[in-house]
Write a structure and sequence with these properties.
The structure is a homodimer of 291-residue chains. By secondary structure, chain A is α/β, with parallel strands linked by helices. Chain A has 12 helices and 7 strands. In chain A, helix 3 (51-64) packs across helix 9 (222-230) and helix 5 packs across helix 10 (237-257). Chain A is globular, with a radius of gyration of 21 Å. The N and C termini of chain A lie far apart (49 Å). At the A-B interface, helix 2, helix 6, helix 7, helix 10 and helix 11 of A face helix 2, helix 6, helix 7, helix 10 and helix 11 of B.
């Protein structure tokens, strides 16, 4: 595990530079050096799955094993996402003063696809900063859990045992993004039935994905998860290429769109609307010529 | 309402051309003529809100009023979205043979932001095809309900009366996208309390948004919704500009990213990985020079 202590202030500033695309962001990113393969661990789950409690417990256990851990907590503010995400964050703050844990939150509306590019860049800053593990956690509401799979080297999908028969309807997309499942609140009634049903479906569809049973609030089952993280299977090269391709694509998109001045776009549209027979597609052709 | 009958085969082909960006898509879009302001009606709601039943009932009522209706049903395949979306679609098929209803489904993974550009274009084809109303419906799971507000002239957000006190936590984002709320399954116990709480919050936060009570399965309350659609308030010009700016931005993004060959990107990354000291950001700089 990394020896010397990490300069948290410097990392925080680097993240701010990258997040806001301030002067120096480009050269900062181009000069990142990745001494070893620091894995990005993605953890996602539906609201109410106890995700922050679990992440807390995982951090605790990784610290006990001598790891230095960085956490990027993504807050996608979905209108349908009731409940207090902020409350979750505060629960994680018990680690804020530990010298080997760095936590940063990003609030996103993510409506224009800029989310993942920034997240990729910030995660890469953390990977190159001397941590042993970078955890990205996000509540799974729609796109975010697909995006996390495009960022992470290992993606854990959390579920809670509920409505045992609904597991039959589990979307294959969930299998595609998961490298492992964590069934939290596994002391609930019906948990074993739920897990058995999940395993049956996994066998039919996707071979052998690990399924972990946890009760994060009681610190049960966490050691198995962190052992899996530490002994993680070697990346398959194809997977690594796909992941990097996706990352590159998102970053290129963000860079290309940076030339579009949305204020000017809106002003030009306001002007064009005053002329009869407005057609959006003819307008776009003309606007593109002006860029 | 529109007089002559609509050539569904021609529309279906035009949609396919646009959806797949086939030869002629660009000139087809540039030559669309919008005879009158055909409104795009967005309807979104969480899984299980009875959305398709409601859309069904709205179509039925608009038909009775002599409208010609086009529906674009968006299937965002979110991994966390349990339950059968396909089943919902099938329920809507009772209208498939009606000469004044055109229904098209789009399945999307939407992970790269291409969704809304295609949807905008397809909705515009429908708006220019002689329909009186274009309905876009999507299940609200994360991004999709934000995207629908970027497409629609009127956005209905559906909710069902549940957990009366949770309404306190309603995200302001939901207010931002909604032009009106529809509380479906309003014959449930506690519905009136739920609606009163919602109205209180709306008054505090956002003035007067209409709230409709429906029981779509019994066809109750539907007439009020369609009356609102037909007598819809005039667009505010600022809102219209914002909407068009967002649409233009999404389409420009799609066009700009079309120059990126993802296969080549992946091949180049595979090659670059074989050299020591791979840095994604230096790679991207070099790749961009080759485009």
């Amino acid at each position: 595990m990394a020896g010397s202590s990490i300069n948290f202030g410097q990392i925080a500033r680097a993240l701010t530079v990258v997040e806001n695309n301030l002067e120096g962001a480009d050269s900062l990113l181009k000069n990142l050096t990745f001494y070893n393969l620091v894995p990005i661990i993605g953890i996602t789950g539906p609201p109410g799955a106890g995700k922050s409690t679990l992440v807390n417990a995982i951090i605790e256990n990784l610290l006990q094993r001598g790891s230095k851990v960085a956490v990027l907590a993504i807050d996608p503010t979905s209108p349908f996402n009731f409940g207090s995400l902020l409350g979750d964050r505060i629960r994680m703050s018990s680690h804020f003063n530990h010298p080997d844990v760095f936590i940063r939150s990003i609030a996103t509306r993510g409506s224009l696809g800029g989310l993942s590019a920034k997240t990729i860049e910030m995660a890469d800053v953390l990977r190159a900063s001397g941590f042993d593990h970078v955890i990205i956690e996000t509540v799974g509401v729609g796109q975010s859990e697909v995006e996390i799979a495009g960022l992470a080297d290992i993606t854990f999908v959390m579920l809670v045992p509920e409505a045992g028969d609904e597991i039959q309807n589990i979307k294959s997309g969930l299998m595609e993004i998961a490298d492992a499942f964590i069934i939290n609140k596994a002391d609930r009634e019906g948990a074993d039935l739920f897990i058995n049903n999940l395993k049956k479906i996994l066998q039919q569809k996707d071979g052998e994905l690990p399924v972990f049973k946890t009760v994060a609030s009681k610190n049960e089952g966490i050691v198995d998860v962190t052992s899996f993280i530490i002994s993680r299977p070697e990346w398959k090269n194809h997977r690594k290429e796909l992941l990097l391709t996706q990352k590159a694509y998102n970053i290129i998109q963000q860079k290309m769109m940076a030339v579009i001045d949305k204020k000017k776009l809106q002003q030009d549209i306001a002007k064009a609307l005053k002329i009869d027979g407005f057609n959006l597609y003819r307008f776009i052709s003309e606007f593109e010529r002006s860029v």
